[in-house]
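Sample pair:
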Amino acid sequence: MSTRLRCAALLLLGALATACATDGGSTDAGVDPTAEPTSATPAPEGTGHEKPAPTMKKPKINMVGGPAGDGGEADERNDDGSVCQFVNWLGGQDEANLGAGIEFRLTGIGLDGAKRSSARCPGYSCTGFTFDSNSDSCVVAVLQGKSEGTLTIRGEVRCSATAAECREFRSNLKTRTIPIDPAPDVEPTDDVEPTDDEEPPGDEELPGDETSGPEPPPAE
């Protein structure tokens, strides 16, 4: 065999040996061949019962009595006999003034010796009414009782003024009542019968109503 053929054969054998070595010993870059395999399944969670979420307590609304002032009654009664009673804010007597940022929202009307009526009245209804520096009067329909009754108001203080002003307003609040007059007595309207001394009314003769005719002859 010539020298040229031997060199070509050696080159071919060397190339095959290099390819085999590369295929058998290659590894992925950045992977430790000695590391233990990891599982993709997450660890199981606890099997115990979950604790319920804590219950959120609702904020308490402080209901307080207010100074109700008598604003008078409407002149005419409603069809059911009720009267329209006007309620004014009377806090000025107790230094409980409705200044800027201070409101009193009505949440209830208390009646003793009287009842509320569903009749409508002129003006702002006291149901859900808010007293403030611009609105200090409302109206409610009341059915009067047999004796004198009273009206009171309760509500919620809403204050966005300074802390000192809010404290002063709440401390000066006093419950004042409105007197409700009793229902008027209705006398029966029976027909009055005439007595024995009185004659029943009859037709009265008016002058000129006599009938005219020939005069009777004189008696002999």
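The two ends are 211 Å apart (CA to CA).
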